[in-house]
Amino acid sequence: xxxxxSPAAPRPLxxxxxxxxxxxxxxxxxxxxxxxxxxxxxxxIGAKVTEEAAELVEAAAEPGTEGRTHFIYEAGDLxxxxxxxxxxxxxxxxxxxxxxxxxxGVSGITExxxxxxxxx
Length: 120
Known about the structure:
Blueprint: H1 12-25, H2 33-40, H3 42-60, H4 64-89, H5 93-103, H6 108-117
Helix pairs in contact: 1-4, 3-4
């Protein structure tokens, strides 16, 4: 019986965000894919996000267990590249989570109307 639960393990997205930050901090000494993407800038990172999003949609249509496995793999790629883009922009995952929390309980129609009024 465990009366004292162990501290929660770090979430994989948090771990990945930290790793991306580490690669960014060591960019000049690093030959990592992440460092190269960050150095290439928004056009290159954005192209990868677009590419991975398209691959995710394609994988969603694949049937069966193999299709599901491929879909999960592509979702991971899209999340990784999105985190790289967030890092390039100087936005932390927690900020995106806060935005999602703000929207929680707000209907999609209301949220879209709010964005239209603010020009975004």
